[in-house]
Write a structure and sequence with these properties.
The structure holds two protein chains of two kinds.
Chain A lengths: L1 H6 E5 H11 L4 E4 L6 H12 L6 E4 L3 H13 L4 E5 L1 H6 L1 H9 L5 E6 L13 H4 L7 E4 L3 H15 L8 E6 L7 E5 L3 H7 L16 E2 L5 H33 L6 E4 L6 E5 L1 H16 L4 E6 L1 E3 L3 H8 L4 E6 L11 H13 L4 E6 L9 H13 L7 E2 L5
Parallel strand pairs in A: 2-3, 2-4, 4-5, 5-7, 6-7, 11-12, 11-14, 14-15, 15-16
Antiparallel strand pairs in A: 1-8, 6-13, 10-12
Chain B lengths: L32 H12 L3 E5 L3 H6 L11 E2 L6 H17 L10 E7 H6 L2 H9 L4 E7 L39 H6 L5 E5 L4 H13 L6 E6 L3 H4 L6 H10 L6 E4 L2 E4 L9 H5 L10 H22 L9
Parallel strand pairs in B: 1-2, 1-3, 3-4, 4-6, 5-6
Antiparallel strand pairs in B: 5-7, 7-8
Helix pairs in contact in B: 1-7, 3-5
Chain lengths: ~400, ~325
């Protein structure tokens, strides 16, 4: 363990992602600057400038073009990457659906941030949760190390010919993107051996011409979309296997969903990204206060690992779901809570679901706040409406 | 460097027989886009990847499960053809360098896009591609309105033209603004080659496509091709080429090239025909009064004057 720790270098999550892109020998990067993503592509640029990564960097004029170019590069057979956040992510929205519809096996990192208006450059998850139905595989990282590892896993998942879907890796803007953590950077050869390049099987190749992106009339369109349903649902075992293999190769794996200090807990708090890592640090103290609460960490979000969810929650009393995005006017105003309520009905779970929206626009949630949320979960009262935690009314 | 011999057409017999844009498409009878695509792919040859913006050509040539393209073809969206082509060009460059693709294979990247996808919604993406000097030939088929959605005006719609969003009535008299100078905008990026072309002059058009491909080792090329639209311009489907020719003979659509900054009108018209001859064959101009036609004539005269200034001599004469 000490030897392992000695190998770690101090990196922000953004820089850890740039290292992963370098170690994966990505061929084409197309990106546009946006806070708090920018230091990802700055670092990648630096790697290319110094000759440490041999890649084409397309200095596009917008995020719409960033994703467009990454899509076409991956369909030509290259390994392509882009990164974004917030408004840029929103500008990409049209292309998000096209990336998954064209089955482009590219990877994108998202330094999650709030959305205008009013403009806020700070963290929440409004950007990513807006795109949960775009047909991408979505994985949340909760440490810089996990971000590095997950980018590596993502290419192996995306390029698998049984999957062929784009993957986005979400993590919190600032709280993770600009925070330095120890990160073990693996040997490049070992990374490439784990995730060798697998080209798009129907690539744009004059020797085997294909038409990609045809207009598809009503008698065929539905089947294309249903194939996407099958692909993303069918990707779950691949995602799990890649993570397990990663563990065997590098000694670190994460599972589809993580239950932390949860076996003996009556109540769980469901959280992702930095809230999950913060809760991991706070839970021992929270337990000392007599609150029998554990953490259910959302890692793989699309496809949703429903079986794991049932396995972890079926014997629990209360589930407090923290959303850092708002689904305006929905039954629960937390988008994740809405989905969880659906999952509970589907699986006949009798949990007491408590929906909490917090951290909007990076309204800081500190130890006392997590303690208060743990108390809410532990008390197990029924809350019919979403709780907007920390808002001034 | 291009490994292929550069095609130069001296007569129609020199046009390659190989068909890479094949029959069976769903373009309107009399549509000139099919002619342009057929000639274009004859010039590009099979080692070509086409990026097609959303539009008439896209919807009419790839209705799943069919395709009229025997070269690899990609459609991803309406406004992103420049960026999509850049992604392909970058992929080819990187993969060749890294031994993931045959280094000696010269694969050309060609965009085919309409005026909406080029002068309006796709302008930003086009500008980015041109400014980065990515090796892409961009071919605009300019039918001067959003024909695919049903004849709505675009930034490329000419003065006076009726469209479904600039109808002619007591208050509105068709489009009241001038057509955007997209070739001028492309040229302002100082790319190696910009041209305007017209399928009524097929050899000229084909040689411009050939030149546009030839310069790709230096940077991008942009070719604006006039595409007479029987449905949107409201003319007899038999008259597409006749009307196209009149566009150049009247000076409303001069054909020229800007090769490394050198401006040259490739079809000089010494005895110019009055623009009325072009307008009167098209229903989209049927509402115009003589006075309004005179106004359009003045606009054409101004344009011709500018062209002659750029040429440094009279290459398009006065109305005979």
């Amino acid at each position: 363990m000490l030897e392992e720790a000695k190998r770690a270098i101090p990196l922000s999550t953004n820089h850890a992602i740039a290292y992963a892109v370098k170690d994966l020998d990505v061929d084409v990067i197309s990106a546009y600057p946006i806070t708090p993503q920018t230091t990802v592509v700055e670092k990648i640029s630096e790697f290319i400038a110094k000759g440490e990564l041999d890649a084409e960097y397309i200095h596009v004029e917008s995020e719409h073009s960033a994703l467009s170019a990454a899509i076409s590069a991956s369909l030509t057979g290259a390994r392509a990457f882009t990164a974004t956040a917030s408004q840029g992510f929103a500008l990409m929205h049209e292309m998000l659906h096209i990336a998954s519809g064209l089955r482009a096996p590219l990877v994108m990192s998202v330094a999650m941030r709030s959305l205008s208006a009013p403009i806020s450059i700070w963290n929440d998850q409004s950007d990513l949760f807006n795109a949960r139905d775009a047909g991408w595989i979505i994985i949340f990282a909760h440490t810089a190390q996990e971000a590095y590892d997950t980018i590596i896993q993502s290419y192996k998942i995306a390029e698998d010919h049984n999957v062929l879907l784009p993957v986005m890796v979400g993590y919190d803007g600032y709280v993770m993107s600009h925070t330095i953590e120890p990160v073990i950077i693996e040997d490049k050869e070992k990374v490439m051996k784990f995730a060798p390049k697998v080209q798009y099987p129907f690539k744009l190749d004059p020797d085997k011409p294909v038409s990609i992106g045809s207009i598809t009339p009503p008698e065929y369109y539905y089947e294309f979309k249903y194939q996407q349903v099958q692909a993303i649902n069918g990707s779950l075992p691949t995602i799990e296997k890649v993570d397990e293999d990663f563990g065997k190769t590098f000694g670190r794996n994460y599972g589809l969903m993580e239950c932390y200090m949860c076996e003996d807990a009556d109540s769980l708090i469901m959280a992702n990204a930095s809230y999950a890592s913060t809760l991991k640090a706070f839970l021992p103290e929270i337990r000392k206060q007599g609150l029998n609460v554990g953490l259910l960490r959302l890692r793989v979000y699309r496809p949703f690992p429903l079986q794991k969810f049932v396995e972890y929650t079926s014997d629990k009393k209360n589930l407090l779901v923290i959303d850092r995005a708002i689904s305006y006017g929905a039954p629960y105003q937390g988008p994740l809570a809405n989905e969880i309520s659906g999952a509970m009905v589907k699986e006949g779970l009798k949990l007491n679901l408590i929906s909490v929206v917090a951290g909007i626009g990076q309204r800081t949630v500190e130890f006392e706040d997590f303690l208060a949320l743990a108390r809410l979960a532990h008390e197990g009262r029924r809350h019919e409406e979403t709780i907007f935690y920390g808002v001034r009314e | 460097m291009s490994q292929n011999k550069v095609l130069r057409i001296k007569s129609l017999y020199d046009i390659p027989r190989e068909e890479l844009f094949i029959s069976g498409h769903g373009l309107c009878p009399g549509c000139t886009a099919g002619t342009i695509m057929r000639m274009l792919t004859k010039v590009t040859g099979k080692d070509t990847i086409i990026v097609n913006a959303t539009g008439c050509v896209e919807v009419s040539t790839t209705r799943y499960p069919y395709s009229n393209w025997l070269v690899p073809w990609l459609h991803s969206a309406f406004e992103n053809s420049g960026a999509s082509a850049s992604g392909i060009a970058a992929a080819i460059k990187a993969m060749k360098r890294k031994g993931l693709m045959d280094k000696n294979k010269d694969v050309k990247v060609v965009v085919v896009a309409g005026d909406g996808g080029t002068v309006d919604i796709g302008l930003q993406s086009l500008s980015g591609m041109l400014e980065r000097r990515d090796p892409v030939m961009y071919v605009l088929y300019d039918n001067e309105a959003y024909m695919n959605t049903g004849i709505q005006r675009s930034g490329s719609t000419p003065h006076g033209a009726w469209t479904t969003t600039t109808p002619a009535g007591k208050v509105w008299r068709g489009e009241w603004r001038d057509k955007k100078d997209i070739a001028g905008i492309a040229a302002a990026h100082h790319i190696p080659y910009v041209a305007t072309a017209n399928p009524a002059y097929p050899m000229d058009m084909i040689n411009k496509f050939a030149r546009g491909l030839e310069v790709l080792n230096e940077g991008p090329s942009f070719i604006q091709v006039l595409m007479a639209c029987t449905t949107g311009w409201r003319f007899d489907p038999a008259l597409g080429i006749t009307i196209s020719r009149l566009a150049t003979e009247t000076g409303i659509f001069p054909i020229y090239e800007i090769d490394h900054g050198n401006f040259r009108v490739t079809f000089p018209v010494m005895k110019r025909k009055p623009v009325k001859e072009y307008l009167k064959l098209q229903g989209r101009f049927a509402h115009l009064t003589d006075e309004e036609i005179n106004e359009i004539q003045k606009l054409v005269d101004q344009k011709v004057e500018m062209i002659n200034k750029m040429a440094g001599k009279t290459v398009i004469g006065p109305v005979a």
